[in-house]
Design goal:
Elements (H helix, E strand, L loop, with lengths): L7 E3 L5 E4 L5 E5 L27 H14 L5 E5 L19 H25 L3 E8 L5 E4 L4 H4 L3 H6 L1 H6 L3 H7 L5 H5 L6 H7 L4 E2 L17 H5 L3 E8 L3 H7 L1 H4 L2
Parallel strand pairs: 3-4, 3-5, 5-8, 6-7
Antiparallel strand pairs: 1-2, 2-4, 6-8
Helix pairs in contact: 1-10
């Protein structure tokens, strides 16, 4: 524990890790834990839910923080160390079917997120939360803003006209900071202002972006529990499993915003 900003805290049972930051960025890793402990029971309804871990997401999250430290800042990092067969922290807590150990770990995971958000609001006013995941589809990055694939397929005029996009998307707060000078579609995927454009400029195929407005022939998830629960500038980011090793080595470029 070198400074207040580099403080690392574990939950009471050691399953959840919280690394404090000093910049308005939170990275959450809700499932890619390596702890497959017998004393923590598996999901009771495991036949109905996904229990397969994401691959290399912890490494990417930690490496991202290391690269940011080189830029003289530190992001907040929250990690669930339990295997996904034990706990998916990006789902609503099923009180009736969850074991006491699972309930406690879930609550502590989300308490750490709330703690980081309150710290950021107090010091910076607003911030960005990235819920980090992996996927097995095409080799690209998917940014999920609580919008459906069908909604991304609409024209710029339709997107900018419908108030739903400006009020229900997870980048609503970002839009309201810039709505006097930008249309919503420009923040969402257009060439000069969107995060998708920034990632594309470093040769990371990204959806949505000015190159890939929406996924053509594959599933697109709008985002899950974490980005729906918290009021910040939020995104759920999915990285392709096959490229994750490469991205661990190249992610420094993306941090130079």
């Amino acid at each position: 524990m070198l400074t207040d900003e580099s403080e690392v805290i574990f939950s009471s049972n050691g399953y959840i890790e919280y690394q404090k930051g000093n910049m308005p960025l939170i990275v959450c890793i809700p499932y890619e834990g390596h702890q497959h402990l017998p004393e923590v029971p598996n999901h009771k309804n495991s036949s109905k839910i996904i229990t397969k871990n994401n691959l290399y997401i912890q490494e990417i999250g930690k490496d991202l923080k290391k690269k940011i430290i080189k830029l003289k800042s530190q992001s907040y990092l929250i990690i669930n160390h339990l295997h996904r067969s034990k706990l998916d922290a990006n789902c609503k807590l099923e009180k009736e079917s969850s074991a006491p150990e699972t309930k406690k770990a879930w609550k502590e995971y989300h308490n750490f997120i709330s703690r980081a958000i309150e710290d950021i609001k107090e010091k910076h006013g607003c911030g960005l939360l990235i819920d980090l995941h992996g996927h097995e589809q095409s080799e690209n990055i998917k940014l999920e803003y609580m919008l459906l694939k069908e909604e991304l397929m609409l024209s710029d005029e339709q997107i900018n006209q419908f108030s739903f996009f400006q009020t229900e998307s997870s980048i609503t707060n970002l839009y309201f900071n810039y709505k006097r000078i930008l249309f919503f579609s420009e923040l969402l995927y257009r060439q000069f202002k969107s995060l998708g454009r920034k990632l594309q400029s470093y040769s990371y195929e990204t959806t949505p972006s000015h190159i890939n407005q929406y996924p053509k022939d594959e599933k697109y998830f709008s985002g899950r529990y974490t980005i729906k629960k918290y009021k910040l500038i939020l995104m759920q980011s999915k990285l392709n499993y096959q490229e994750n090793i490469i991205q661990i080595n190249q992610i420094k470029k993306v941090t130079n915003f």
